[in-house]
Structure prediction request, 180 residues.
Amino acid sequence: MSKIGRKPIILPKDVTVVVTNNKVKVQGPKGSLEHDLMPNIKVEVKDGIVEVKRENDKKQTMAFHGLMRAKINNMVVGVTQGFTKELELVGVGYRADLQGNVLNFTLGYSHPVKFELPKNINCTVEKQTKIVLTSIDKELLGQTAANIMKLRMPDAYKGKGIRMAGAVLKLKPGKAAAKK
Prediction:
């Protein structure tokens, strides 16, 4: 049984949740988000509290129960506070530059790499090696950060590449010196 799914979501005073035609819409001071309801899941809004309930106890429905509650909670947090992800570029000559909604990367390839940001993602580049992504949609933010990191995954031997800020990599040892 989903312990997460049973927890009620307490709405801040500026947030409204509307459920219509298998869609949940959350509006707040930073914007609005919308998501489709999962099958066999019901959402009730009463007196500033959102409760997610399931229609049966099948394994798939129980999994969707906790997932839907977590998604609605992330939408509520997103429209009130927003989410942030920080990425670091590690490597000699690796840098990023923001022009409009396009990130231009120099990542050690023979050509510059251009990455177009989705329209709900805000980005700032600090010191050419630190990228700060912000959004109200946690799912889109995480996917965008993963797509950027995929441009140059961190190397297992030197650690060069794009990674989450503060991430610690366990580096492999290089070749051992030949013994005589």
Residues 14 and 39 are 29 Å apart (CA to CA).
